[in-house]
Design goal:
This protein is α/β, with parallel strands linked by helices. The protein has 16 helices and 11 strands. It starts with 14 loop residues before the first helix and ends in a 7-residue tail after the last strand.
Length: 448
């Protein structure tokens, strides 16, 4: 009979616990036949081979990281399977408390590893050693994978998500003409595909920096095309919409019908305000993509709300500035705003981290001082038509569009008092935190 071997020791497990559970198996393990020195030399040769293969390109780095995580997951699964089997022989209870404890410890360990990695990434962003784009790509790739296995209706912020979707639906409906050609920058997983379908557009071009989000958007469109009978043409591409010209991205998308009637950036423009060069490149991309009379719409964190919150701290406050509630959290590492008489010394690169339950896990974002955005848009031939907080926009526009909303959309934003809207902690994290805007292209600008 083959000798039963002990499973590998889980990283979070103490040596004492491991010996207690598997000491009897460790004692049974036999030494390999032949010369031990030969075995050791072979092991060293294998390690050297692994070292030689390590990291030649970023792609290989990613593959090696994924293999490591998969191996770690296998170790945990084998460990849990073995321990639960051994314990069940004693407890004779397949749902023992010990088994659930191991499951919790596994999840806790993996979560801590992820948080540690995110903190390291954030430290590099703050110190200028890496670009925020790398963190954003990792975050949204992970969110895409998580969303495949989660039920949206079970989200703890489902009311907030429903409210945000109503805001976007009204904004899109208000400014999207019939048979429009729409360009959505930072399109994510294509969450607004149905909204555009209900507004009878002719073409939707979606671009995003996350390759996994683009693939998920393609899958979603094919599904919705059958379920919702979406009839417009969809074109998807992957690339940096903010830091680089759109030319190289759309070069391989010959069916795009530029210039467009509408450009949309939803909950993403704040990443462009890392630097002035990046912000200007973004607005240049918008302007070059629009025809005269075309509209530029978006949803962004409201800089006036951020000012309101920051001004609650005394000028001599010398710790990282943070606030939030059960739904969201904001943290500014720097307190320069306070020292500079409650003003930003530079409208670009004002970094904070943002947490939103079941959506955003302490991802770095940048303040968009709205007057700076308006000024840049003016430089590229875009005039401001409208800017309102979510609260004001909903109050002004919801009565006009209520009859156009589906029963499910309306039921999703019914408050406890029977009225429509959002309340409690979710209200501050959405209705107060964000604003909507619309610019119109009124002139062409000589752009090199």
């Amino acid at each position: 009979m083959p000798v039963e071997e002990a499973p590998p020791k889980a990283p979070w497990m103490s040596e004492e616990k491991y010996q207690k559970l598997y000491g009897h198996l460790l004692k049974k393990e036999t030494k390999p036949e032949g010369n031990n020195d030969t075995v050791i030399e072979q092991d060293k040769d294998e390690e050297n081979e692994e070292d030689d293969e390590a990291i030649v390109t970023a792609h290989q780095l990613k593959e090696k990281k994924n293999e490591k995580l998969l191996h770690q997951e296998d170790v945990f699964n084998d460990f849990l399977k073995s321990t639960s089997t051994n314990e069940n022989k004693v407890n004779k209870n397949p749902q023992s408390s010990n088994e659930s404890l191991y499951e919790r410890n596994k999840k806790l360990y993996l979560q801590k590893q992820l948080e540690k990695e995110k903190k390291n990434q954030l430290d590099k962003v703050i110190s200028g050693k890496t670009n925020v784009d790398n963190v954003v790509i990792d975050h949204y790739n992970q969110r895409t994978e998580i969303s495949k296995h989660n039920n949206r209706h079970l989200s703890p912020i489902i009311k907030l998500k429903n409210f945000n979707n109503i805001i976007k639906y009204i904004l899109i409906s208000k400014y999207t003409p019939q048979y429009a050609v729409v360009l959505e920058l930072a399109c994510g997983k294509g969450g607004d595909l149905i909204k555009y379908g209900r507004n009878n557009i002719s073409q939707w071009i979606g671009l995003d920096i996350s390759d996994q989000s683009v693939q998920e958007a393609k899958r979603r469109f094919l599904y919705l095309q059958r379920k919702e009978n979406l009839r417009y043409q969809t074109i998807l591409g992957q690339g940096d919409c903010f830091g680089q010209s759109l030319g190289p991205i759309v070069m391989n998308l010959p069916d795009c019908r530029f210039p467009c009637d509408l450009v949309s950036i939803q909950f993403a423009l704040h990443y462009a305000f890392e630097t002035e060069q990046k912000a200007r490149r973004t607005i240049m991309n918008v302007s070059k993509s629009l025809k005269i009379g075309g509209k530029f719409i978006g949803t962004i964190p409201d800089s006036e709300f951020l000012r309101f919150k920051l001004k609650k701290f005394p000028k001599d406050y010398d710790k990282p500035i943070k606030w939030g509630n059960s739904v969201y959290k904001v943290k500014f590492e720097s307190n320069e705003f306070l020292k500079n008489n409650y003003e930003w010394d530079n409208p670009f690169g004002q970094l904070y981290t943002f947490y939103l339950a079941d959506a955003i896990n302490n991802v770095p974002e940048y303040v968009i001082p709205f007057e700076t955005l308006r000024s840049i848009c003016d430089d590229y031939g875009l005039n401001l038509m409208m800017k309102k907080s979510f609260t004001q926009f909903f109050a002004d526009e919801f009565p006009k569009f209520k009859n156009n909303l589906s029963t499910n959309q309306l039921n999703g934003i019914i408050r406890d008092d029977g009225k429509y809207g959002i309340t409690g902690d979710e209200k501050e994290a959405s209705a107060f935190f964000y604003c909507v805007f619309c610019f119109e292209k009124v002139r062409n600008v000589d752009i090199n």
